[in-house]
Amino acid sequence: MSAHHLAQSSPAALTLAPIAYAIDAADVRAHLYRIRLKIAQPQAQQRVALPAWIPGSYLLREFAKHLQNLRATQGGQARAVQQLDKNTWQIEADEGKVLQLDYEVYAFDASVRTAWLDAQRGFFNPTSLCLQVQGQTQRPHALRLILPQQTPAVQVHAAQAAAQVSAQAAVQQGPPNAQGAWVYHFDHYDHLADTPFVFGADLWCQNFEAAGITHQFVIAGAPPNMDGDRLIADCQRICAAQQAFWQMPEAPEPIFKHYLFMLHATEDGYGGLEHGNSTALICARQDLPRVGEAAASKGYITLLGLISHEYFHSWNVKRLRPAELAVYDYSRETYTELLWFFEGFTSYYDDLFLCRTGLIDPAQYLALLARNIQTLAINPGAQVQSVAQASFDAWTKYYRPDENTLNATVSYYTKGALVALCLDLTLRREGPGSLDEVMRQLWRRSGGGPISEGDIAAALEQIGGRSFAPELQAWVHGRGDLPLQDLLASLGVEWQCKPPTWAQRLGVKVQEGSAERSLAIQTVLRGSCAEAAGLAAGDEWLGIGVAGQLWRLRQLEQLAYLLPAAAQTGQQSVEILYCRGQRMVQGTLQLAAAQEGLGLVELRLPRQGAEGARAWLATV
């Protein structure tokens, strides 16, 4: 089912498309894709450009850095190629004659955003390989994928945009024609760009139905003890629940007729990228379910949350999307203040659907929610930057973290999810409405297309029966605390605080040492007692002085018996010794400040009552 709109066409048929790519994956040891682009009707000074970013990942990744050996010919004659900027070239061509470009792209990035090629697996997003033909991006495009003919039982998987599907095709085992090529057709460049490809001879594949829609799950690198049946059954529940969530009488037809999950299981990895009717995922092999294990591991719950997140994006960001991204400009940043909604609200619903489908119980869900609350509470950057500003700054800040990120920025994923929670609980407390209805109202209002913050405000007002402008101003554009505890209490959720960890008390993030190594400081939070003591990111904390004695420090929990001992002797502070740039430095840590700090948040439902919370978390 995954090689959709697959045509066993001849190479000659491919050239009938105005824009035609032939992608040869033969050079697996050099990790090079060889690409031939044919432009049927070039301009006299034809410009081509490789995208600088991929939708869904808001950072200029400069894919052109991996493009090499660009050459142009017409009728066998070389044509002059001039590079105009980092990712744009101009070719001197004769109008009306087929222009051929040949080039190579190095592909050895295992992320979901770019391209990979080796003897075991191939993967690519067309944004990393396919040059845009300027002035002709709205014309039909075709792509022919050529694989080594000696590759046994190779499988190719791709899921084109719904508008492109005229038929469903089975997974192809081996090359469909003598040239070993798979041929795909697209209405325009955006459809091509939104179609990732994966291929290989050792892919785990299984189909399932959800809400009458065929889904396929493809895994590269699956371990032999993976419980594939459990993974498929759990994914089926997630997909069916989300399809039901978005089902409306005004839009009875599903947004796609097929869906493809592409998962790369690695030794240690995590991430996902949404597409119109597919997603590319990465997880650690140990996070996949194992045969014989009854309980879901924390890693597997995290993976299910990722699957839920990317599937929900099929509606919320791929169709409902910021008005600023109604038309993609692949060459530069496109700024929006709405990622708190598109990423944050999706983050709110991803784990919530695990609870509503019974894949986790309410206690597990509340533990995940408490972790997000804790993350925001200890983030000084939340008092510096609003979540709307964080959305706008994604291009320069979120995807480029450093040791000061927590002090200067807030995550539009984390805070955006908690804004969604606050709005949902407010709607449920004040009346019969909920955020679920707001999401569906936004779909009706936009026809499943671009929206603005004004549309969000209007949908909230229509469902809630009043203006939510004060809440949006305070929670989205303001930098104050969210009323999480009060709102959760209004539904009967109990909020408790446990004693803080030593990292929370001190305001640091550390890499703890071994018997041979010391405590490495990674982040020092603004206003913390660690900052007051002079510690900074990159320091090596060697020891502390207690009652006239110097003690070696390798783990923060060693402070549990060293600092109380100091307090019992009447000390108000202790001396600390750390190394910065080979220099030994002394500082003073105030004991009173080191005993304070926000405790760990714990949420729970009482055994009786809390009907509002139980309705909110109810299984669908």
Structure explained in plain terms:
This protein has 620 residues and is an alpha+beta fold. It contains 20 helices and 30 strands. A 7-stranded mixed β-sheet has the order 5-4-8-2-1-12-14. Strands 24, 25, 26, 27, 28 and 29 form a 6-stranded antiparallel β-sheet that branches. Helix 11 (414-430) runs parallel beside helix 15.
Helix content: 25-40%
Strand content: 25-35%
Biggest sheet layout: 7 strands, mixed
Radius of gyration: 27 Å
Distance between the termini: 28 Å
Subunit organisation of the chains: single chain
Estimate the global geometry from the Cα principal axes.
Answer: globular
User: Looking across the biggest beta sheet, what order are the strands in?
Assistant: 5-4-8-2-1-12-14
Tell me briefly what this model is.
The protein has 620 residues and is of the alpha+beta class. The protein has 20 helices and 30 strands.
Present the secondary structure layout:
Layout lengths: L10 H4 L4 E9 L4 E8 L5 E5 L17 E8 L2 E2 L2 E5 L2 E5 L6 E8 L8 E3 L3 E4 L1 H4 L2 E2 L7 E6 L8 E4 L22 E6 L2 H5 L3 E4 L2 E8 L2 E8 L7 H19 L11 E9 L3 E5 L3 E7 L13 H15 L8 E2 L16 H4 L1 H13 L5 H16 L9 H6 L12 H4 L5 H17 L4 H12 L3 E2 L1 H12 L4 H8 L7 H7 L3 E5 L3 H5 L1 E4 L7 E6 L4 H4 L7 E7 L2 E4 L6 H10 L4 E8 L2 E8 H4 L5 E5 L6 H6 L4
Helix pairs in contact: 4-5, 5-7, 7-8, 7-11, 11-15, 12-13
